[in-house]
């Protein structure tokens, strides 16, 4: 037999799915729901917490509970890397027409808000090992955030690293004011004669940190996908390493593997 808070949650859930409460609508105040369902405030809050965990409702501090607007879905395919490589030698005006986020979401460049921040940091032992350089080697740490203009959360949390001495021959690669770079990282590396041979991506999942959950506006209980990406040049060197945090409630990952024919 369903508990009282489950019955209340089910009723509110049906009202949302029937369109009686639309995305962005504010739910009745908790005190109003107490009167409507003739149940205690803790019971009402249990029901709302259940809907928040399902991603149907979000609590906005100081404002109340709202029907959650569906976030823009992202389908990220491993074929995007060849797409980016193929564009690296295209003229800049052609590369500037669209980027990887537009490729993954179907949105236009004008729909997006982009932010990049660069800083120089010493390589921690784990990342230094990835690049095959001594710990403490100066890296360019690049953080990226891109969001749909009508939403408040970015699609991903990206932290990317380059070895400073490797890219310093083109000073433009050290300056975040040049972002968004038409064609992305592969086009940046092309300016210093680096061609990628392969990209390795290690994908895991885990609960988000409190900071990640807040920035990505995740419903309670939602996991994040963690992708650690290493880009190798044609000499077998790691020339870029990044960690990408993807929200589990709106990200699909599609892997296509072409097999050799007999």
Descriptive notes:
This protein is α+β, with helices and mostly antiparallel strands. It folds into 2 domains: 64 residues, Arc Repressor Mutant, subunit A (Orthogonal Bundle), CATH 1.10.10.10; 181 residues, Chorismate lyase-like (Chorismate lyase, 3-Layer(aba) Sandwich). It is built from 10 helices and 10 strands. The strands form 3 sheets. The chain has a 6-stranded antiparallel β-sheet with strand order 4-5-6-9-8-7. The protein has a two-stranded antiparallel sheet with strand order 1-2. Strand 1 and strand 2 form a beta hairpin. Helix 1 crosses helix 3. The mean pLDDT is 93.
Explain briefly what this protein structure is.
With 262 residues, the chain is an alpha+beta fold.
Task: Set out the fold topology.
Elements: H1 4-17, H2 30-37, H3 41-53, E1 57-60, E2 64-67, E3 74-77, H4 80-87, H5 92-95, H6 100-105, E4 112-122, H7 125-131, E5 138-148, E6 157-163, H8 164-167, H9 184-190, E7 196-206, H10 210-215, E8 224-233, E9 238-247, E10 251-254
Parallel strand pairs: 3-10
Antiparallel strand pairs: 1-2, 4-5, 5-6, 6-9, 7-8, 8-9
CATH topology of the largest domain: Chorismate lyase
CATH class of the largest domain: Alpha Beta
Major sheet summary line:
6 strands, antiparallel
Q: How much is the radius of gyration in Å?
A: 23 Å
What proportion strand? 25-35%
Overall pLDDT level:
93
Please describe the structure with a list of short key phrases separated by commas or semicolons.
alpha+beta; 262 residues; Chorismate lyase; Arc Repressor Mutant, subunit A; 29% helix; 29% strand; 10 strands
């Amino acid at each position: 037999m369903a508990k009282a808070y489950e019955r209340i949650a089910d009723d509110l859930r049906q009202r949302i799915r029937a369109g009686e409460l639309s995305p962005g609508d504010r739910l009745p105040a908790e005190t109003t729901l107490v009167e409507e369902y003739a149940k205690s405030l803790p019971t009402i809050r249990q029901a709302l917490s259940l809907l928040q965990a399902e991603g149907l409702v979000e609590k906005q501090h100081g404002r109340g509970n709202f029907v959650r607007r569906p976030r823009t879905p992202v389908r990220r395919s491993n074929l995007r890397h060849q797409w980016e490589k193929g564009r690296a030698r295209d003229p800049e005006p052609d590369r500037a027409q669209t980027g990887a986020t537009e490729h993954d979401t179907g949105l236009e460049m004008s729909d997006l808000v982009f932010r990049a921040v660069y800083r120089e940091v010493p390589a921690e032992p784990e990342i230094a090992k990835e690049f095959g350089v001594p710990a403490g080697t100066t890296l360019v740490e690049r953080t990226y955030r891109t969001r749909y203009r009508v939403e408040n959360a970015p699609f991903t949390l990206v932290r990317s690293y380059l070895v400073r001495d490797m890219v310093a021959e083109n000073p433009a690669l050290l300056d975040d004011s040049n972002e968004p770079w038409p064609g992305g990282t592969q086009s940046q590396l092309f300016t210093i004669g680096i061609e990628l041979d392969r990209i390795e991506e290690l994908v895991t999942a885990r609960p988000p940190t409190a900071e990640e959950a807040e920035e990505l506006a995740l419903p309670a209980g939602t996991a994040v996908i963690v992708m650690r990406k290493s880009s190798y040049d044609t000499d077998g060197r790691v020339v870029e390493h990044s960690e990408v945090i993807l929200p589990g409630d709106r990200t699909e990952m599609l892997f296509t593997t072409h097999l050799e024919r007999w």
